[in-house]
Design brief:
Layout: H1 14-38, E1 44-48, E2 54-58, H2 62-110, H3 120-172, H4 183-189, H5 202-210
Antiparallel strand pairs: 1-2
Length: 211
């Protein structure tokens, strides 16, 4: 009698489920042992039942096998991560290269170069872009000039205020006379001079003769 294919799903009956677990567990442990002996493979098997009971098999040392598995998994994860990063960087480099080429082509067209292959629509779009750029440049230039004019006007106001303050200070200072008159002036204008020709020793006698 041909045995039918067992449907793989959870066995609802608890007794049947426990019997099936015991049979298949033993068969699995037997297969693991046979694999380790026949193929000289390092095998470690861990099984927990629904009640939390542990069943295990290890061809050598369970802890050594688990450590070996952890190291292998870590290396594979690191290698996969590095490979993924390399692929991502390659993709980004290719994307940036394409963008740079497109920007360079647009730049040349805006400068009036390589227009032979452009269609009428592309030329119209370039013209609109140039008009927009000129409008933005002129607007910015007007704003900058307006700001400079405003600063100069403020500076002019400050200079005018300083000039007015200096004029007020000059008006408050006492006025100095342009020149002296009267006796003091005559006294200042008088200059005593005496002209004598001769030897210095005779100057005294000459004065006496004049007396």
């Amino acid at each position: 009698m041909v045995r039918g294919k067992t449907e793989l799903k959870r066995i609802e009956n608890a007794t049947s489920r426990q019997v099936t677990f015991s049979k298949r567990r033993n068969g699995l442990l037997k297969k693991a042992f046979e694999l380790s002996v026949l193929c000289d493979a390092e095998v470690a098997l861990i099984v927990f039942s629904t009640r939390g009971k542990l069943y295990e098999f290890a061809s050598s040392s369970m802890l050594k096998t688990i450590d070996r598995y952890g190291t292998y998994s870590k290396d594979n994860v690191d290698n996969r991560g590095i490979e993924q990063n390399i692929q991502q960087l390659k993709f980004e480099i290719a994307s940036m290269s394409n963008k740079l080429e497109a920007l360079e082509a647009t730049k040349r067209k805006l400068l009036g170069e390589n227009l032979e292959l452009c269609s009428a629509e592309e030329l119209h779009e370039l013209e609109e872009k140039l008009d927009q750029s000129l409008y933005s440049i002129r607007t910015k230039k007007t704003q900058m000039l307006g700001a400079q004019i405003a600063k100069l006007k403020e500076k002019e106001k400050l200079l005018l205020k300083e000039n007015e303050a200096l004029q007020e200070k000059c008006e408050l200072l006492p006025q100095q006379p342009l020149g002296d008159t009267g006796e003091d002036a005559n006294h200042q204008m008088e200059v005593e001079t005496e002209l004598y020709i001769g030897w210095p020793r005779r100057k005294k006698n000459h004065n006496r003769e004049q007396d």
